[in-house]
Specification:
single chain; mainly alpha; two-stranded antiparallel ribbon; 28 helices; 8 strands
Length: about 625
């Protein structure tokens, strides 16, 4: 297979290098040919990288390197390369703007807000100091001399990749876990910090108060105009085109470039009107970001994001291929060595900055460490900042290349680090505890042992709703309920419902015994195998049955095939959420078909709070 792939690449390179390129008997425009070459190599390498489970972004960068001056030299014109990268850059930032959700940030909880607010600036400081220290030792061959390289590299290592992290959490169905919610919240905050960096970036070389204020005023002016149009004329335009869904995409991109062109024309307007240049122009990237953010909350935003998402990968491909093409011929071994150094600094920052901040903001040791490990890659937003830095003349081509290579290196280790995060925590846990980051206090045996009528193993959505029902309908039972869960951040909320809660890892039988599982009458494991770590429901039931032979054990199964094994392990009842939901919906469907749905809903509405009124431990 690999031999055939190599032959195909060689044949394609020979065909693509043939000049002039003809289309319908006419010479193909150079830009069209170059974009075609970029997409072709990206497609071939993406297939290969998917097969070997490498991130597609690394394939895009490698495609640019192969097609560009550093590789086969099929695309060598710097102007064409810049056009490709700029187009991808503008549309990439437009999509980032579309996905910024300020409401989600503000409702993320104390841990997310504190972590998001502090993590980025403290990591920038951490990276800045390390780079300055390396520069003092003479490392980097002069590339790290001065203040700007240290500032840029501090910013680069402070961000993590939204594209890679969100995709992995989605694939593992872990977005709704503590590490998932923390990671998403921190990533959104990182995007906001990156926007601030983009605002200040043009003035970094010679920071002056007036030009910086003028830049902020220009951005504020463009934002105000964009919001005004988005709520009036643009909203009406999208209302019209929403009836023809295929037009949503072209209207969204038209809006993007309308805002970009408006921001780029401010100085021209002031020169015409006032005969003076006030330096109010807004860069194309910031304009695109504003364009996306100002329509993100329209009633049609979901449709817009869906339609733009169809071509999202195309835009991303162009940007990263353009970065790969722009990498110059390395002049020595110090460029790849510097790339490795940047990657190492990024990983160290997760342990020395990310983890302590997560821990001190109220996240328990396990979730703080898992989240920090899974955010170990460099952000694509960092590449955007590096791309602009090279255009502003702040960074040398060699340093820009090292940043791109560092991104690729951290992208390649993202997947293995993601899956190994819990194992890494088990190894690091004693070390973290020894240096002042202990796990919540271990459960202590009481002289007078308490017995429990009910025990909940793990606390996720099902357990949250069950405890809510028990607390409101049988408060006495809630006071005789034991909850064992490692998410210490919600233990206070669980206790508000009257339950007794203990910190514990479900995969450790000794922890379960000390928590009191041997003194419970009914034991429920409601967390599916997809979310359990270090154990599954079958092994958990086996452990619990050994510790408490007389208990009634109710466990959860994900698939029909799992049921028999869990019963054989000692469960008294095994439930599948899909079946329980189907049975409930079957009655609802029957009522809807015979016209008695209102009769079913009325008593439920009288006795049960509406969903939005249920103040559960987990929202």
């Amino acid at each position: 297979m690999r031999r055939h792939l190599c032959l195909a690449l060689l044949a394609a390179a020979f065909a693509l290098s043939a000049t002039p390129a003809l289309a319908s008997g006419e010479e193909m425009p150079a830009l069209v040919r170059d974009i075609g070459i970029a997409i072709f190599f990206s497609g071939v390498l993406t297939v290969l990288f998917t097969r070997i489970k490498f991130p597609a972004i690394a394939a895009f960068v490698l495609a640019g390197i192969i097609a560009g001056p550093l590789g086969l030299g099929l695309v060598t014109d710097p102007r064409e390369i810049d056009v490709i990268a700029q187009l991808g850059f503008v549309l990439l930032l437009f999509m980032i703007g579309l996905e910024i959700d300020l409401h989600k940030i503000m409702t993320g909880g104390r841990g997310i807000i504190v972590s998001g607010a502090l993590q980025f600036p403290l990591t920038v400081l951490f990276g800045f100091l390390l780079i300055k220290l390396l520069a003092l030792t003479g490392f980097g061959g002069g590339l790290l001399d001065g203040t700007l390289p240290a500032i840029y590299l501090g910013v680069i290592v402070a961000g993590s990749s939204t594209l890679l992290v969100v995709k992995l959490y989605q694939q593992a169905f872990e977005l709704d876990t503590v590490p998932g919610r923390l990671a998403i919240g921190v990533l959104v905050f990182q995007d906001l910090w990156a926007i601030i960096v983009l605002l200040l970036q043009p003035s970094l070389q010679s920071p002056q108060v007036l030009p910086i204020l003028a830049s902020f005023f220009g951005i504020a002016l463009l934002t105000g105009i964009a919001i005004a149009f988005a709520r009036t004329l643009t909203k009406v335009a999208f209302h019209w085109t929403a009836k023809v869904p295929e037009l949503i995409l072209i209207c969204a991109i038209s809006w993007c470039f309308a805002v970009v062109f408006l921001g780029a024309s401010f100085d021209l307007v002031t020169e015409k009107l006032f005969g003076a240049n006030f330096h109010l122009n807004v860069g194309s990237g910031m304009g695109a970001l504003i364009a996306g953010a100002t329509i993100a909350n329209l009633p049609y935003s979901t449709e817009i994001i869906t339609k733009v998402g169809v071509v999202k990968d195309f835009f991303i491909t162009l940007f990263f291929v353009g970065l790969g093409m722009s990498i110059p011929q390395p002049s020595g071994w110090f460029v790849p060595l510097l790339a490795i150094t940047i990657a190492v600094i990024a990983i160290l920052a997760r342990q020395f900055v990310f983890f302590p901040i997560f821990y001190w903001s109220g996240i328990d040791q396990r979730n703080a460490e898992v989240s920090a490990v899974r955010l170990s890659q460099i952000s694509e937003f960092g590449l955007v900042i590096a791309f602009l830095g090279s255009q502003f003349g702040h960074l040398t081509p060699e340093l820009s290349s090292a940043i791109v290579f560092a991104f690729v290196l951290t992208a390649l280790i993202t997947t293995p680090l993601y899956h190994a995060a819990y194992m890494i925590h088990r190894v690091m846990s004693p070390i973290l505890a020894a240096v002042g980051f202990p796990e919540p206090p271990a459960v202590k045996k009481e002289e007078e042992k308490t017995t429990y009528r009910l025990a909940l193993l793990g606390f996720h959505r099902v357990a949250s709703s069950l405890l809510y029902e028990i607390a409101h309908k049988e408060p006495e039972l809630a006071r005789e309920t034991l909850v064992i869960d490692f998410n210490a951040a919600i233990h206070g909320r669980i206790r508000e419902f009257g339950a007794h809660v203990e910190y514990g890892d479900l995969s450790n039988p000794e922890t379960l015994l000390h928590a009191g599982i041997d003194r419970a009458g009914v034991i429920i494991s409601s967390v599916p195998d997809d979310l359990l770590r270090g154990v599954n429901n079958q092994r958990l039931v086996e452990s619990v049955r050994r510790l408490n032979p007389k208990a009634i054990i109710i466990a959860n199964a994900v698939s029909f095939a799992d049921c028999q094994g869990i019963y054989e392990a000692g469960a008294n009842y095994v439930f599948l959420s899909r079946l329980e939901t189907a049975r409930a919906l079957n009655e609802v469907v029957g009522r809807a078909l015979n016209g008695t749905l209102a009769e079913l809903r009325a008593p439920v509405a009288r006795t049960t709070p509406r969903a939005e009124e249920r103040n559960e431990a987990l929202p």
